[in-house]
Amino acid sequence: MKKDTSLFSLDRRRLGKMRKKLEEINALKAEMAALTDDALSRKTLEFKERLANGATIDDLLVEAFAVVREVDKRILGMFPFDVQVLGGIVLHQGNIAEMKTGEGKTLTATMPLYLNALEEKGAFLITNSEYLAIRDATEMRKVYEFLQLSVGIGVFDDPNRKVEVEEKRAIYHSDIIYTTNSALGFDYLIDNLATSSDKKYMRPFHYAIIDEADAVLLDMAQTPLVISGAPRVQPNLYAVSDEFVLSLEEETDYYLDRERKEVYLKKKGINEAKRYFSQKGLYTKGNKELVRHLNLALKAHTLFENGKDYVIHDEEVKLLDKGNGRILSGTKLQGGIHQAIEEKEKVKVTPEMRSMASITYQNLFLMFDTLAGMTGTGKTAEDELIETFNMEVVRIPTNKPVIRQDFPDRIYTTLPEKINATIQFVKQIHTTGQPILLVTGSVRMSELFSEILLLEGLPHSLLNAQSAAREAQMIAEAGQMNSITVATNMAGRGTDIKLGQGVKALGGLAVIGTERMASQRMDLQLRGRSGRQGEPGFSQFFVSFEDDLIMESGSKWAHRYFKKHKDARDDAIPKELKGYRYRRLFKKAQETSDAKGQSSRSNTLEFDESVKIQRELIYQERDNIIYNRNKDFNADFIVKKVIADFVTNEEISRDNVTRFILDNMTYGFTGFPNQLSFKEKEAVHQFLNELAQEILDKKRLYLTKDFVDLERNSVLKAIDECWVEEVDYLQQLRTVAVARQTAQRNPIYEYHQEAYQSFLTMKEDIYKLTFRHLLLSEVTYTKKNELQIYFV
Ligand code: ADP
Ligand code: MG
Prior knowledge:
This protein is an alpha/beta fold. Adenosine-5'-diphosphate binds near residues 103, 107 and 496.
């Protein structure tokens, strides 16, 4: 039996301190067991009183954990193991508990969630799939409800269900909320589009535990969440660009570097384009849009692959989650690339939407006072997690020693060799009846393996993005005797694979990986599907020089080696490569790939910095207005300021002033008094102020106490109109900056400069627009006596 020697010494020291707490918690076992149900459930009230009298939740940890443990036992029939209590303490401290698959993280979370919910500011459990959120909430809620806490679930079985504000508010004001990262992110953005306090539903973020933390915090965090609004108006050059690109050839017409995701037209390609579009020059001002579309079409054809990056589903291009191969619903690539792919696939090209609001997951989660996480695989990414989220990764020992065997990779030169070797191996294992989980890196590969198995007459189930709904159920059955399950790399993550009758004696679950994944963490996740809770099992990967990992992140010699040897290979007789040099190649390639992921995430974050600062200011300002906290934004102040700015900055002439009045103040302007001279700035200034006051006074008289509603709505509308423009502009600016970046420059600094300038402009625009809304809008009352404001 292999002993778990993986505990890092730092973790051991940390755990040492926690063990003292654990002992204290263990010492309360008998006392808690002796309490009646009533007395046990009344503990919540007692704890809250103590908090009110000055105790801290840290003071309550020992007792609260002991209480939840006892309730877990009474209600769910599961008494948290010592290692789960240790995990719970790590979660309370705002760190990441690394606990292997099957160790019971769902139950572990009940203790810190309860403790932190006692503060009555809300405690979240955030995971990466609706299925898991609903499943775990449904199972665990009985515990919290026994303890008189309320539970909300932020996602729904039916994703199209319309949820009213009241319902959302009830969910987000529950003591404990189970939800997904994307539901939380979208709800946050939508909450900040509300135009009055009765449309807002969120509370400030207090405490959250993120389940499958590395998937949520790292793998899903590469692209920001974006809410899209009105379509962008622009020429439709997608079709012609697509047609043109189809006529080009790699190397002669364009340069392609798959590894660095770079592609651009070479001289010959540019000349072709000039001829094709009958243009003298291509990189001229008037051809900006054409060049953009050509680049998009090139990218769509060379850097995005059907079945790997996206699938066509219901006649639409749907993106695939790199981590688990599932369809990312509601997400589109930004900056026109999605449309270019639609054109390439000849499905309907959707309008390119402007982004109205956006946030990165990193910045979303950083808003929590305390953020914690749990996952089976976090240690290898600890540096990044500390740097970005200030969370350490504490490895919790397993409840029982792990006896799974992880065999060294079997390495082949070509893809067909590898596939043949894999299938031979599958057949051999299958004759014994041992269940097999065959894992691929893409939907396309899972389909390919499924077809081959079918030809070989091997019954199996196929699990990929197309069958997301049944995923969990199917994967749960992957441990039955004789079963073969083909799945994309992290399909069904978070679902336990229990071994069927007699499988233990056969050696448990066999995990066979058909390629090493883009990150070491993903490989570890896969291996961990087998051998949970001290069960037997093994994992074995098959790899080749043709794998994406090597193609995209492998050393140069590997590419040369492949070119030289590929034709000499006989696919039917796979030849295994052995030796340190090959093993090291795959290890290195994976490290390179991991580093790329990390740098792309830090890039995303760096770009978001400007948006973040602006977003925080704008959201704060909106809230101040919604909750009437801002003295500056009243009608008189704004009117005076905008008029003063106009008089100072613009040329004062009869024409200009007339236009200013008609555009911004009133349509009913009848003319200037005779004695007004446009040479006297002060006189014009005074005249404009008086005119504005007159208009405002009329509205005040008519609206009486509702005048504040006009003020509020005018400002909010102005802010939103300008902010939508700004978000969209920053998004575009970002796309441009990223493109510049690949040309060996660091344009992030320039980006922040430009972003700041446009923020200053936006602020002025908000004042001007508010002014216009205040004066030029029309106000009436409906029959039901509700205020109606018409903005022009
Ligand atoms: P993880 O999320 O760590 O992979 P789960 O939370 O899905 O694991 O739990 C795996 C299984 O272990 C579940 O079937 C759960 O009911 C069971 N389990 C967890 N903790 C305990 C416990 N203390 N006693 C008995 N069974 C437990
Ligand atoms: Mg889990």
